[in-house]
Amino acid sequence: MKAWIAFWNILDKDFRAYYLKPPNISWGLIFPFAWAGMFFIRSGLPAAQGTAQAGSGLDSVPTLLPGVMAVSVLFGTTSLLSVTVTFEKKGRSFERLLLAPIPLELLMLAKTAGAILFGVANAFVPVIMAAFLMDISQINWATLVPAIVLIAVSSTFLGLFIAVSVSEVFEAQTFSNFFRFPMLFLCGLFFPVAQLPVWLRPLSYALPLTYGADLLHGSIHRAPHLPLALNFGMLVAFCILLFAFSLRNVRRKWIV
Q1: Which of 49-58, 92-101, 205-214 has the lowest mean pLDDT?
Q2: What is the pTM (predicted TM-score) of this model?
Q3: What contacts 183, CB < 8 A, 6 or more positions away?
Q4: Structural domain boundaries of the chain?
Q5: pLDDT class for 180, splitting at 50, 70, 90?
């Protein structure tokens, strides 16, 4: 019971100290709002040019929505967590948390829970905007919601892995981009993985967002390319592996 009280206090502290600060709110919420608006307004522009062309513009909104959602989650979670954890480590405040009488696994889950919740909230910003441009009643929410949660968890654990692998904040941001930008082009967010060159497809299937993007596409506008069980199973596997590697780095580098 005391361990879960500590979990809640750490989560509450992170929200007040980091996630609810104006810079993080602007990056975490306004950024996906602007990102979604840029794509959706551009998609709806043909509507003002005639009825014959209106359908082509609005029909692209369901196609763009999964990619915009995934990008909002990916950039929001990795940016926030990689900076906050690295900053606390550099400021030696993380060492005080390591002295808390709770398991390391629960401590790291407490440090990542805020970013996961923030990532899930980010994902629904584009959905709210898309509701004004498309009929969202056809969305398969039973697939979409757990997919968003797993994407947020895997992206957060990727940010954690990055944060515990470097010592400076600028290194965390640079290292984050090493993973994030290839994902934009290789994970099937805006065009199918099948259209990639054959030699690039194995790399695509080695990235967690590939399976999350397939779930998002499948729940919004088309059948998934891979079986649902495989997509969910691979996302869970990536979450476990990233978290395990992060804990291993913490024990090796941060605990003397």
Answers
A1: 49-58
A2: 0.84
A3: 74, 189, 207, 209
A4: 2-254
A5: confident
